Amino acid sequence: MPVLVVDLDGTLIRSDSLYETFWAGMSEDWGTALSALSALTNGRAALKRSMAGRTVLEPEHLPYNQVVLDYIRDWREAGGQAVLVTAADQSIATSIATHLGLFDEAHGSDGEHNLKGEAKARFLEERFGPQGFAYIGDSKADLPVWKAAAKAISVDAPPALQRQVTALGNESEHLASGVKPGYLAALRPHQWLKNVLVFVPLFAAQSFTGMHVIHAILAFIAFSLVSSSGYVLNDLMDLRADRAHPRKCKRPLAAGRVPIAHGTMMVPLLLLAGLLVAMLGGPALLGVIFGYFVLTTIYSTWLKQRAVADIGTLAGLYTLRIIAGSVATGLDLTVWLLAFSMFFFFALAAVKRLAELVDLEKRGIGTAKRRGYYVDDAPLISQMTTASGYISVLVLALYINTFAVQELYTAPWILWGICLVLMYWISRVVLVTHRGKMEDDPIVYAIRDRTSLVCILLVVAFAVAASVL
Predict the structure, then answer these.
(1) 300 within 8 A of 237, measured Cβ to Cβ
(2) CA-to-CA dists, residue 432 to 145, 385, 451, 456, angstroms
(3) What is the pLDDT of residues 388-424, one digit of tens each?
(4) Which spans are transmembrane here (predicted)?
(5) CA 368 → CA 182, 373, 458, distances in Å?
(6) How far apart are CA 370 and CA 148, in angstroms?
(7) 127 in Cβ contact with 121 (< 8 Å)
C-alpha cells in the first residue's frame, strides 16, 4: 500500500499558512509588512521562514478540511501510512502534524528550498520511490506531484483541473468538501444599513431635490464599498480572535469559506472602487471617505486595543457617515445634529463592547482578546452607555425648542414623542445586553428585533406628524 502524502495549504486546511502567519504578524506589528518585503528578496522559502518566525500559528483553531481528515483516518485504518508534505515552513508542518496526530512524518520548506511543484515531486520520488505514494492536493502547482504519484487525489478542484488530473493516466479520485464560498457574506452587506446615515442631512433639512438624492446615493454606494474593504481588513487582522469565538468563528475568512489570499486582494480592490465612486461626488466627499478608511485602519490595527478610545472611534465613524452625506449634498449640518450623533453613537458603540464582555463572562473568560477590557469593566461600560444615550435624548429635547425647528415643523411639540421612544429603546437595549441577548451590532439588532422596528416606525410617525399636522 503506497504512502498517503497530504498537502497542507488549500488541502488539509481551507487556508494558506503563509497568509495566516503574515496577518497574525500584522495584527501585532505593522513592521511585519516591511519584514516580508525584505525576506522576499531572498525567495519564497525565506519569506515563509521569516513569517513563521514572527508569530506562533495556533493549529487547534485552523479551518481543517473535514473530508481530507476523514480520508487520512480511513487510509490509516486500512494499514497505510500518512505523511504531511507542504511548501509551508517546516515549523508549521511540524506543529500541525503534532496537533493532529495523524501523520508519521512531516516535511516542509527549510528557508532555502521551497518544497512545491517539481521540487516536491523530486523529493517524494527520492523519499518513497517512483509511484511509491498517493498524493492529495488542490491546485495546478500539484500537477507534477500527481504525475509522479501512484494515485492522484484532488480536493475541491475546479472541473478543468480535475480533467487534467484524470488525463495524467494514473489512478485518480476527486474529493469535494461541500463548503460553500462566502464572498458576499465577507463584505457584510447587512452592515451597509449603517450607511443609510448619509441620508440624515436630507431628512434634517427636509430637502429631497433630485440632485441632493443622487449625491446622497453616490455617498451611500461609496461608503458601502469602502466600509466593506474595512470589514475584510478587520477580519484578516482578527483571524485568531474570531476563530476562538463561538459565533465569529463562522465568519467567511475565519471559517475558510473565502481564501485569505482572496481576502487580501479584496481590501485594495473594494477601497479603489469606493474611492472612484466617491470622486463622482466631488473632492470633499472623496476626502471624507478616504479619511474614514484611514481611521478604520487605525482602529483595526491599534485603537481597537485601547479601552474607551475604541468606543469613541466607533462613534466617530458613525458620525463621519452623516458628515459624508452633508458634503455630498451640500446641506449644512447643525451643531445639534452633530452633538446628538456623537452621544447617541457613543452609546451604541459602548453597547457593542458591553455585549462582548457579557458574552465573555458567560463563557468564563476574564479578558477580551485583542481588546483593552476586563469582564469586571462591564458595569462601568454599562454606565457609559446609559449616560451617553440619555444625554443624546437631552440634546434632542433642547433642539426641539430652537427657532429652526419651529420653522421646519408645523407641530414641533409632537417631536417630544421621539424623545420618549428613544428613552425607552436605549433603556431596553442596555437591559437586553445585560441579559446576554445582544449578539449583533446594535444597529443590526434593531432591524431584526420586532420591538425595535416598532420604535423605528413610531419615530418616523412622530416626525411625519410634526411636519403635516
Answers:
(1) yes
(2) 56, 13, 12, 17
(3) 999 999 999 999 999 888 888 899 999 999 999 999 9
(4) 196-226, 269-295, 307-327, 333-351, 380-401, 413-431, 451-468
(5) 27, 6, 37
(6) 46
(7) no
